[in-house]
Design goal:
Order of helices and strands: HHHHHHHHH
Distance between the termini: 161 Å
Radius of gyration: 42 Å
Number of strands: 0
Helix content: over 70%
């Protein structure tokens, strides 16, 4: 009986030990599965953040500009944009015209002197017709009146020089207008945005950044875009003025040399 009891007790302890071991194994597997699931979730969140971050970083300049344009309010940003478009159109036209009006005055005067020296005024006029630019046009007007005397030639050169100067300065008034209008529309949008902010404060009955943020954003964005437009147009406007001054100097110096040639060789 003692032997049977010992064997029974031993078998019972073995079964209990096996059950405990199985339970520990199950708990370890469950813990491992939970850790793996947690790590997978963290990895997925990290990947989602990595995917979202490049999406924010890869916004093009055009997209950012479009967003700011919408945030600033189309009603106030559109006039500023129109000032930029029309101003740049006139500036491009002036730059092309002035570049085409540039002439190699020394080469032209040498050609005129060579033909006038031989008394061939028609060939000199032909040379002026084939040369583009206001300087050649002034010389042609002078040569066309050579039979009327040098006094009339000088008057023609002076008068037509004023006409050419007016043509060089064409559309500058409109460019100056757009330079003034762009920041004016921006400041007007600023004032309207501030009024909107105070209206929101009055409606909410509370002063907080959230309440006034919308109106302040409109105010700041319209001012920024208006000033940027004015700065861009002003830079090109000053370049055009410098180009015109250079051409006027060429016209004046060339006219003096032209009259000297006629006085020297005209009989």
């Amino acid at each position: 009986m003692s032997i049977v009891g010992l064997l029974t007790f031993a078998n019972f302890n073995g079964v209990m030990a096996q059950d405990a071991a199985a339970t520990d194994t199950t708990e370890q597997v469950a813990a491992t599965d939970e850790n793996a699931a947690a790590e997978a979730t963290v990895a997925e969140e990290a990947e989602a953040e990595e995917v979202a971050a490049p999406a924010d970083e890869t916004k093009s300049f055009h997209q950012v500009l479009k967003e700011k344009y919408i945030q600033g309010g189309a009603g106030w940003m559109t006039p500023v944009l129109l000032c930029l478009i029309f101003g740049m159109a006139l500036i491009i036209e002036r730059i092309l015209y002035l570049n085409m009006a540039t002439t190699n005055v020394k080469k032209l005067l040498d050609g005129i002197e060579e033909k006038v020296k031989g008394g061939n005024y028609e060939a000199a006029k032909e040379l002026c017709r084939d040369t583009r630019g206001p300087v050649a046009s002034i010389f042609y007007q002078g040569l066309d009146r050579i039979d009327q005397g040098l006094d009339n030639v000088e008057k023609a050169v002076t008068s037509y020089g004023g006409v050419q100067m007016a043509r060089l300065e064409n559309n500058l008034t409109w460019i100056g207008l757009f330079i003034a209008l762009a920041p004016s529309f921006g400041f007007l949008g600023t004032v309207v945005g501030m009024v909107q902010a105070f209206d929101d404060i009055e409606t909410a009955g509370d002063i907080s950044p959230t309440v006034v943020a919308g109106g302040m954003k409109v105010a700041l964005l319209t001012t920024i875009f208006g000033l940027i437009t004015a700065i861009i147009l002003q830079i090109f406007y000053n370049y055009i003025l410098t180009k015109i001054e250079s051409l006027v100097d060429q016209m004046e110096d060339g006219s003096i040399s032209f009259m000297d040639i006629l006085v020297k060789y005209h009989k």
